[in-house]
Amino acid sequence: MTEATIWWLLAGGAVAAELLTGTFFLLMIASGMAAGALAAYAGAGTVVQLVVAAVIGGGAVVACYVFKRRRPSDKPARADRSVNLDVGETVFVDEWNSDGTATVKYRGANWTVIQRPGNTPSAGLHRVAELVGSRLLVDKL
User: Is the dihedral of CA 72, 73, 78, 83 positive or negative?
Assistant: First the structure.
């Protein structure tokens, strides 16, 4: 069996492992192994093949990690309008309780409302920012 064939079998094994585990980084490692196979086809020695596979695979992992870290994170489902239709709706708060909660009538039922931490509670119109358990977290408009 040639060295290139071994590299392709290793790359295929990494892709199969990625399909079983869902780890995207294994695809980057598999790309390094494919680069090692191409280096073997080019007639490079074993050490050069290992270096090429390590540089390409490791570089791809680092690039993927950096790209993923710079991308803005997704909103949690409790604050995402496409998941929770209450987000973005408005409620009117008459008065706040001493514990920082209020009760409002919303969608035909009484709901407990809490203010975003750091904001001072004040009566008036508020927008629902997210659901925290069975409470509405609101921001003053």
Answer: positive
Are 18 and 27 in contact by the 8 Å Cβ rule? The answer is yes
Q: Which amino acid, residue 31?
A: S
Q: Report which secondary-structure segment, H or E, holds 135.
A: strand 135-140
Task: Report the Cα–Cα distance between both ends of the chain, in Å, rounded.
Answer: 71
Residue 77: per-residue pLDDT: 67
Q: How far apart are CA 72 and CA 21, in angstroms?
A: 24
Q: CA-CA distance, 116 to 138, in Å (whole number)?
A: 6
* pTM exceeds 0.70: no
**Chain Cα centroid distance, residue 13:** 26
Query: Which has the minimum average pLDDT: 6-10, 51-55, 68-72, 109-113?
Result: 68-72
Q: Which amino acid is at 111?
A: W
